[in-house]
Specification:
This protein is of the alpha+beta class and 149 residues long. The protein has one domain: SSo0622-like fold, CATH 3.30.1960. It is 42% helix and 22% strand. The strands form two sheets. A four-stranded antiparallel β-sheet has the order 1-4-6-5. It has a two-stranded antiparallel ribbon with strand order 2-3. Helix 2 packs across helix 6. The two termini are 21 Å apart. The model has no long low-confidence stretch (mean pLDDT 94).
Length: 149
Amino acid sequence: MTVQTITAPEGDLLNVLYRISPLEWRRFQQRYPEARVDNSFQVIDRSGYPPYISFRFVEDDDEIMRKLKWAVEDYAGSVTWTLHEHKRYGLPGVNWTIRPSRICEVKELAQALGLTSDEYLAKYEPNFGVIAYVDLDGLTEHIRRVFGV
């Protein structure tokens, strides 16, 4: 099976992760996605929404995950990042998400306003997303160096 390389800069971390170990599933927040508006596709600015990178490896490897967790926690950039585990009950594999820890920090504030954390940050801290997208490049390079890929 041929896996297409992600060309969007905010998806490059998924390319790095694939070089570490093949991915079964992947998803990421695009900064400028194309969306259907009326009868045409238009580029939408979602730079206020912080980035996230979600993935599942074809094969779980505890050593890779320990090293990846260390790399995410060790990274010293403008944003603090976290590696979140989501077990798939009744299904094989684990979904993982790398995201700014600020997303978790504003969860209660967001819920009190009827918003998701992403919506809250886009509305009340719109510059955070912009900063996080820039910092994601640094995190990607850090993980690339840690794993030597």
